[in-house]
Amino acid sequence: MSLNNLTYPLQYEELRPDTDPEITLDLDRLDETLNPETGFEGIIGRSSALRRVLEMVETVAWGDSTVLLLGETGTGKELIARAIHSHSPRIERPFVKLNCAAIPTGLLESELFGHERGAFTGAITQKIGRVEVADQGSLFLDEIGDIALELQPKLLRVLQEREFERLGSTRTKKVDVRIVAATHRDLEGMILKGEFRSDLYYRLNVFPISIPPLRERPEDIPLLVEHFVQETARKLNKTIDAIPSDTMAALTDYQWPGNIRELENVIERAVILSRGSILRVPHRDLQSRVTAGHSSEKPETLADVEREHIRAVLKQTRWVLSGPSGAAARLGMNRSTLHFRMKKLGIVRPC
Ligand SMILES: Nc1ncnc2c1ncn2[C@@H]1O[C@H](COP(=O)(O)OP(=O)(O)OP(=O)(O)O)[C@@H](O)[C@H]1O
Ligand SMILES: [Mg+2]
């Protein structure tokens, strides 16, 4: 695969003649952007920062080395984890994901390693853990920084010895699993505070890949905007064929504290709100977002944007989460992820 394929024909500057206040989207050429022959399906961008990341993915994918993905929220860690799996010889085997932050510590252990019937109160049947399900495939441990200290030695054993026991069993099981872990947290800082084991960190940190935040690769923004506009318009059965150049400039200047996920949400909202075929990003929205972007270190900014967007979609679907026109489908996530996010963001249905 050649990374040169990441250079898409549609370039924002080229399509912004001084006399024309709008960028006309070439829909035929956009189709190429939507279905790129990059070998990295669904990964959009042309910045050198992204290319460096993809080169690392290519380098590491073929082997079994543990990969640690580092990056702010919404930068594409999960997308990259999937790309590593799909470019590895394990492609025909399962890619198993476990979000270590989404499951209470008590349950996480049995989620990881499984349990025998009667292992603890409530264990009425035997359960296979994700480590075992991922045998011969890849195990993506998302939010690894959130894994409790007491569980870390057991995970270290999987990394070192490729072995574990189901809860309630003394039989040691061997697995052949490739681990990809991700976090937005500063693991070295956590080690200093005694919150993360250094031995586990060194085992995870074999091949670290840092995914840069969107504000450090603004060249990717116009391509991503065009991609998400087309994707959302198609999903909503709308036609958007132009983006005002000042809107694109404002989108490119914005700092995107929530990175690509935030961009995706803002564009989806804009497509929903646009009446004609020209993309309208609400001016006030963008103004306040631009201001918020300057204080990108504040975690509440992303939470506010996400909460606002999820609430807006829930309102449209009358709080229906599942089904083809439910909020989860509209937000491009599955029901349990939406449920988890709603809980995390404190979104409750009004009485
Ligand atoms: N380069 C890209 N091209 C197209 N879409 C992207 C790209 N990077 C990320 N995305 C999209 O942005 C969204 C967020 O990406 P992803 O879930 O991989 O981020 P993350 O780093 O895992 O975020 P978090 O830390 O919040 O879990 C997803 O919908 C993903 O498909
Ligand atoms: Mg993620």
Short account of what is shown:
Helices cover 44% and strands 11% of the residues. With 351 residues, the chain is of the alpha/beta class.
CATH class of the largest domain: Mainly Alpha
The total of beta strands comes to: 11
Query: How much is the average pLDDT?
Result: 83
Give me the Rg, rounded: 22 Å
Provide the helix percentage. 40-55%
End-to-end separation: 54 Å
Structural class: alpha/beta
Tell me the CATH topology of the largest domain.
Answer: Helicase, Ruva Protein, domain 3
Q: Total domains, how many? A: 2
The parts where pLDDT drops under 50 for at least 5 residues are 1-35, 288-299
Report the portion of residues in β strands.
Answer: 5-15%
User: SSE string, helix = H, strand = E?
Assistant: EHHEHEHEEHEHEEEHHEHEHHHHHH
Shape-level CATH architecture of the largest domain: Orthogonal Bundle
Give the count of helical stretches.
Answer: 15
**Strand order in space, largest sheet:** 3-6-9-2-10
Reported for the largest beta sheet, the result is: 5 strands, parallel
Shape: globular
Bound molecules: adenosine-5'-triphosphate, magnesium ion
Q: Would you give an account of this structure?
A:
The structure is a single chain. The radius of gyration is 22 Å and the shape is globular. The chain folds into two domains: 167 residues, Orthogonal Bundle (Helicase, Ruva Protein, domain 3), CATH 1.10.8; 163 residues, P-loop containing nucleotide triphosphate hydrolases (Rossmann fold), CATH 3.40.50.300. The chain contains 15 helices and eleven strands. It is of the alpha/beta class and 351 residues long. The protein has a five-stranded parallel beta sheet. Strands 1-11 form a two-stranded antiparallel ribbon. Helices cover 44% and strands 11% of the residues. The N terminus is likely disordered. β7 and β8 form a beta hairpin. It binds adenosine-5'-triphosphate (ATP) and magnesium ion. The site of magnesium ion has 3 residues, from α3.
